[in-house]
Prior knowledge:
- The protein is mainly beta.
- The protein has one domain (35-182).
- It is built from 1 helix and 12 strands; from the N terminus they run H-E-E-E-E-E-E-E-E-E-E-E-E.
- The N and C termini lie far apart (95 Å).
Amino acid sequence: MKKLSLIATLILTVLLLQKCKTDSFTASTTSSNTMFAVINDTTWSADTINASITYNAAAKTKVLSCSGIAKNKEVKMSVTLGSNSNTAGFPLNTYNADAAGMNTFAYYTSSGNNVFVQQGTVIPGSGTIIIAAIDSVKKQMSGTFSLVAKKVVYDKDGNIVSTTINEVAGGAFNNMPYTFTSN
Length: 183
């Protein structure tokens, strides 16, 4: 009798285990947006993008400039490097806003009339762009960016009346097309 109940228990266990399969889910996210970020806790995707690399032979500099516009908001970034390389590429690196003005970042808004007004200043260390990949043949680049723009309003006596902080976080550009110009 014990053998029969042991066999019945084993068969029942096998049948129950057959019904209990582990559900597994694989998720991945990709974005078809070329340039996007979270601006002041709101998702933003640029619908107008401009990016360029310009080599200046006289100054021996290479300038990467990019901007994106959507929903009456504009983000601009510029990185200037000393360079002897007259090529369409740009070094893969992290570039931070600096006091010398070699790496600049800005955030603008518009009231809808296509006149954009800068919303504060991005101080040194408060803006970052990472060039993670660049294809100088296809002229496409990918990377990430972030910035914090601070605007302080003073009264006539120099006292602070208000401070406004605008944060552009989690920004990315994926296979963003760019142009190359050599002067």
